[in-house]
Amino acid sequence: MTTELVIELERRAARFAAVATVQQAISAAISLDETYHEIYTAVASVVDAPCFTLITADPVTETFYPQYAVVDFQERKSDDTASFPIGTRSISQAFQTGVPSITAEPERWWAGTGYEVKETLPVQSELTAPLDYRGRIFGVLQVLSYRAHAYDAHDMELITLIARQAAVAIENARLFAGQRSEQQQTAAAAEIARLALRKVTVKDGTRNILEVLDRVFPSRGKVIGVVTSDDRTLICVAANGSCSPMLDISAPVDESSVRTAWGRGKPTLLDDFRADAHHADKVPAEPAIVIPLIASDRRIGVLVVTTEAPRLQDVPYVDALLDLAPSVALAVDVLLLGEHEQRTHARERTLAAALATMDQPVLILGVDARVQYANRAAIREYGYEAREIAGLSVDDFVVASAQLSRRETIPASASEKGLWTGEHIHKRKDGTEFPAAVTLSHIRDGTENIVGLVIGVRNLTEERNIREHLTRAEKLAAVGELVAGVAHELNNPLTGISTFAQLLLEDKLETDQKESVNLIKREADRAIGVIRDLLLFARTSEPRDVAVDVNKFVQHTLRLRTFAARSAEIEVHLHLDGSNPQVRGDEPKLQQVLLNLLVNAEYALHESHVRHLSLVTRRQQDTVEIIIADTGRGMPEEIRQRIFEPFFTTKPAGEGTGLGLSVSYGIIQAHNGSISVESAEDAGTTFTITLPLLASAEA
Q1: Can you tell me the mean pLDDT for 649-655?
Q2: Apex CA 43: angle with CA 38 and CA 49, to 5°?
Q3: Of 540, 564, 545, 557, which Cα lies nearest the Cα of 617?
Q4: Distance of CA 451 to CAs 120, 441, 442, 673, Å?
Q5: What is the predicted pLDDT for the residue at 692?
Q6: Residue 520 confidence (pLDDT) above 70
Q7: Highest mean pLDDT pick, 16-30, 144-158, 530-544
Q8: Between these two residues, 530 and 438, which has the higher pLDDT value?
Q9: Is 257:249 a contact under the CB 8 Å cutoff?
């Protein structure tokens, strides 16, 4: 008996705490969303409430509007499509009679709507209580449980009490929301005025105005239209929401859906905005309010707001919007006046922006051949600060061997040639030089007198590197053909030597003779293997997409560098995956990548005391990794980040083109693979090539 008494006391305490929670929400005057959450928290603390909804009703349209819902203990945002008419179900009865009810056969109105989360258990109990504020019922609370007979009379009494307190909390929250709305309207008017003073286009300014209006008056869509100078055509300069398709369309005022409001010069409510529209396919079929924008007794455009029918009759909403209309009209008028001034300077700004954003250096000189303007590319190329380059002479940029002095660049008379092109060697602030193609043209005034010069500069370094690379590639191709020819010529006698050595081994020889013949055959076979690898590498072929044995092509490529590695006293460690992984691709291209990485590794080991080169193949699930690691000098981070850039090289001039790694990167990318590098100064470098495993090999 004592235990039951304690349980009952705890239950009552929890219920009183729930009521207190709702009362605290009232006194705190929090937002509607927070109020709804607090109400559910109070209800869930005293009864089983896996599903809960708070619904308000509009007696004019006889429609229920869900405001807050919890389904399977998950809060759901309001869903406008879930509204439903007032009918005969338990929700309707509680609203119409003001009497709470409990039923064991609940109807889940939210089934199939956006509120529903999942189907778990059938709902077996329902408790519905009216939201009664001072004798006016404006909605209901509904609690549902998956348990049968989950609620009793005591629960209904408590939930009814919570519902009364909840009604007061909701009304208070609405009151404070109204006060906040007035404050927002005042702030919106001030912000719209500030927007009008900004130097922006009419489109940008009106779009910003719509964003401000959206924060104060949420709606289905909004549009601002301005009238042309002849007062005959409206152009939609800003639109959002359901009105977004209307952006940039134009229509004669007399043939548009706003003609009634325009003719009256007063706000007009439309039941269907699309009716009588000039562009019916772009105008939403929604109720709307059309507000003429009038500034200085002149109609300059319209503001249209589309929304749902129930809200369109909400007088405070419409009145608040009308209160802001003069501010919107004044702002649009200021934007229209400012746009004309902006057009005046648009050409100058465009030219300045074009110069500033060009990726080639441009210098504007005065008649004294001194810099008056340099674009960003020139500042970047020559290495000067903007304040340093202004006032410098053109002679400061050109080396003495190819001097381009003022006497040579500015003709003595206007009849001389006005355009000059040529190539010179230019120098930067730090003393470094680069080849440059220069184009010089004159700036003339209205009387054709020369008042300045425009110099365009193009750095020829990259072009010359490409030219040198192509020349070197042609030489390498010729060398490849020569190597292939020599290899063929050597292959025949070496094959004969190997064959005759094999025949000699079949004869009865002395021990020392047999060892000598074995040595001859072994060395001949080794030479034949080297020649075979040279032929494989030098042979030109069309791009292929075939199965490639990773271990095999790694071994072949490594043999090409065996002599070079031995000569440089490099210790090579080869570790091949025992599963013989295969990839799909072009073997000569993959050999080219690996050979380039081996050559780079050997170069990095020249100055290293410990010269170890490791080559590893490794299968990783559906990929194959080829890892090339050296114990060389390594790279700092700033160099590591740039090694795959075309023409970037750390080798001295004449020893590297800077194209090897960039070409290798492209080849691996073409094979749907990746190439990465890890390096640090004095810690060596590791390149990892990752290629997709051949599909047949995966099985």
Answers
A1: 60
A2: 120
A3: 557
A4: 85, 11, 8, 58
A5: 92
A6: yes
A7: 144-158
A8: 438
A9: no
- Rounded CA-CA distance 340/208 in Å is 19
Give CATH for domain 2-179.
3.30.450.40
How is residue 255 annotated by DSSP? G
For residues 340 and 579, give the distance between their C-alpha atoms in angstroms, rounded to a whole number: 75
* CATH 1.10.287.130 location in the chain: 460-540
Residue 459, strand partner residues = 436
E strand or H helix at 251 = strand 250-252
Residue 71: name the closest of 129, 120, 5 by CA.
Answer: 120
Query: pLDDT value at position 578?
Result: 87
Beta bridge partners of 573: 614
Give the pTM: 0.36
Q: Which CATH architecture has domain 197-342?
A: 2-Layer Sandwich (3.30)
Strand ranges for 410-494 from DSSP E: 419-427, 433-444, 450-459
CATH code 3.30.450.20 region(s) in the chain: 362-456
Report whether pLDDT(627) > 90: yes
What is the domain class of 543-699 according to CATH? alpha beta
Distances (CA, A) of 541 to 321, 456, 536: 75, 44, 10
Q: Under CATH, which architecture does the 460-540 domain have?
A: Orthogonal Bundle (1.10)
Look-up: residue for tokens 């071994």? 555
Closest CA to 527 of 552, 566, 491, 563: 491
Residue 430 has pLDDT above 90, yes or no: no
613 beta partners: 572, 630
The closest of 3, 10, 41, 298 to 162, measured between CA atoms, is 41
Q: What is 653-677 written as a DSSP string?
A: TTT--S-HHHHHHHHHHHTT-EEEE
Domain with CATH 3.30.565.10 in the chain: 543-699
Residue 190, token pair as written in the block: 């001030």
CATH number of 362-456: 3.30.450.20
Cα gap 29→51, rounded to integer Å: 26
Q: For residue 580, is it left (φ>0), alpha (ψ between -120 and 50) or beta?
A: left
CA angle 469, 473, 479 (to 5 degrees): 145
